[in-house]
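User: Show me sequence and structure for the first protein, then do the same for the second.

Assistant: Starting with the first protein.
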Amino acid sequence: MKLCLLLPLALAFAGCSMSSSEVVHMRDGNLRAPSYADAQNYCEARKLNSQPVGKAPGDTGVLFRCE
């Protein structure tokens, strides 16, 4: 019975744990962002220019580099 009550709560927290504009570092050294605007904002905050690399696998965003 307790598992049935805790499972929905755990799923709710898991769904809220990632920000929609979060930038993720990929294994190959590229970065992934939800959009080109998020990528540009991320690089500009570090006083760098964003260089698009392509689409992220599964259309989960865009791949880019900060140079």
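Switching to the second protein now.
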Amino acid sequence: MIVKEINANKNQSIKLINANNVLKLAKLRSQAIATKEVKRAEAYRDRAHKQADNEAAIIQNEAETRLGVSKNRSQALIKEATSEIANSNKIDPLRRFDEKMGLARSLAGVSSRGKMVVAGNNGQQVLNFYADTMSEIAGR
């Protein structure tokens, strides 16, 4: 009977040792899987951060480029406006000439279908319009 107890204790000890070994292996495997998943998640996070940083850099470069273009356009418009202000007294006669020529083209367009009969109240209004417009242009 003592031998049976000893054998039973041995078997129980062996089973307990085996169970502990299985437990340790399971813990090691779960740690390996957890480590692998953590590394995968970190790699994904790093990749996402790099992609976001690259996109931000591209957006910033495009914005800086657009700003530079806008500054150049602004400087060109400022120079053009300054030049026009400085030469406005020289430009005015050309503008008056362009207005008179436009008025003449308008009158030619009205009478382009042959002869234009200017008679009565309506005819007088047409003549008064062109005369008043010429006077207004000359008075500027």
